[in-house]
Design a protein that fits this description.
Order of helices and strands: EHEHEEHEHHEHEHEHHEEEH
Radius of gyration: 19 Å
Largest sheet: 6 strands, parallel
CATH class of the largest domain: Alpha Beta
Structural class: alpha/beta
CATH topology of the largest domain: Rossmann fold
Oligomer: single chain
Number of domains: 2
Number of helices: 10
CATH superfamily of the largest domain: NAD(P)-binding Rossmann-like Domain
Helix content: 25-40%
CATH architecture of the largest domain: 3-Layer(aba) Sandwich
C-alpha cells in the first residue's frame, strides 16, 4: 500500500515491442499514479531481461495466459494471431483489458458479453487516431455518417492480406494510389495489422458496417495520416493527425504508446479530463 492506504493497480503487458516497452518504462519510473508493473509476456526472454536491467523493479516474465493471474489490468500489444490468448483469460478473470489489436476485437464481439458476465472491462485506447470522445458525443447527439481516410507510405501496407490476395503492386509508386474503399469491418479483415484505428473509430461511432474507410498508399508521405469526417445532428467536424513513426518500429506511431499511457492514467487519476 502507499502512504494513503491504497493498493496500487497491478499492470501486466503482453508484448514488449515499441508500444509495450514504452508503457513498461513509464510505469516502472512511477509515471502513472497508483500503478505498478508486475508482469510481462514476451517471446525473447533474454532481450527482455536486458531491458529490465535498467528498471527499478523488473517485472516477472510469464506466459500469455498467466498474465491475468498476477494483475488487475492487462495491456495487449501482441500480433493479432495471439490476441485471444491474452483477451479470454483476462476477461474470464474479470480484469480490466486494454487491447491494441482492436480489429480482432471487432471480429470477436462476444468478448463484450463475456466481460459483462464476469464484471471485466474492455478499455480501447484512442491509439493512433484523434477525437474519439467527440465521435462518442456526436453519437449521443444523432451521428449520421463517419468516414476515415488513411494515408500511409507504401511500405506501411506491405504484407496486408487484402494487398496480397488481390496482387496489388506498391512498388515504384510515383503518386498516391487508393488501395481500399469499404467498411471498417472489411478493413479490419483485409488489414489486420494496419488499421486498428478504423476498428476503434467504428466502436466509438456507428459500428463496423456503417463506418466508411479509404486507404491510400502514398509515396509522398513519411507518416501515417488519419483524417476523420463526421456529420451529426449536434456537430459536423473533420479531424486529422499525422503520426511520427516509432524509432523501434517505423510502422507504429509514437503516439500509440502514449495513448495507452493516457488510458491507464484515467484509471487512477483523481482528475479526468475529456468525456
Amino acid at each position: 500500500m502507499n502512504s494513503a492506504g491504497k493498493t496500487p493497480l497491478r499492470l501486466a503487458i503482453a508484448g514488449l515491442g515499441a508500444i509495450g516497452l514504452t508503457v513498461a518504462r513509464r510505469v516502472d519510473e512511477g509515471g502513472i499514479e497508483e500503478m505498478v508493473l508486475t508482469a510481462v509476456s514476451v517471446r525473447d526472454h533474454e532481450k527482455a531481461k536486458k531491458h529490465f536491467a535498467e528498471f527499478n523493479s523488473p517485472p516477472e516474465i510469464v506466459e500469455l495466459a498467466k498474465l491475468a493471474d498476477v494483475s488487475d489490468v492487462v495491456v495487449e500489444c501482441v500480433p493479432a494471431a495471439h490476441f485471444l490468448e491474452v483477451a479470454r483469460p483476462a476477461l474470464e478473470a474479470g480484469k480490466m483489458f486494454v487491447p491494441l489489436s482492436v480489429g480482432v476485437l471487432l471480429k470477436n464481439m462476444e468478448l463484450v458479453d463475456l466481460a459483462r458476465k464476469t464484471g471485466a472491462r474492455i478499455i480501447v485506447p484512442t491509439g493512433a487516431l484523434i477525437g474519439l470522445d467527440a465521435v462518442r458525443a456526436a453519437r449521443s447527439g444523432g451521428l449520421r455518417s463517419v468516414r476515415l481516410v488513411t494515408r500511409k507510405p507504401p511500405y506501411g501496407l506491405e504484407g496486408a492480406p487484402y494487398i496480397a490476395e488481390r496482387g496489388i503492386s506498391l512498388d515504384g509508386l510515383s503518386e498516391a494510389k487508393k488501395v481500399f474503399s469499404g467498411t471498417a469491418r472489411e478493413a479490419a479483415i483485409g488489414f489486420p495489422a494496419n488499421l486498428n484505428v478504423g476498428a476503434a473509430l467504428a466502436l466509438a461511432g456507428l459500428g463496423a458496417d456503417d463506418t466508411q474507410v479509404e486507404i491510400w498508399a502514398d509515396p509522398g508521405v513519411n507518416r501515417n495520416i488519419q483524417t476523420v469526417t463526421c456529420h451529426s445532428d449536434s456537430a459536423d467536424f473533420t479531424m486529422s493527425i499525422e503520426n511520427v513513426p516509432s524509432d523501434e518500429n517505423p510502422r507504429t506511431g509514437r503516439v500509440t504508446a502514449h495513448s495507452v499511457i493516457a488510458a491507464l492514467e484515467r484509471l487512477t487519476s483523481p482528475l479526468v479530463v475529456g468525456s
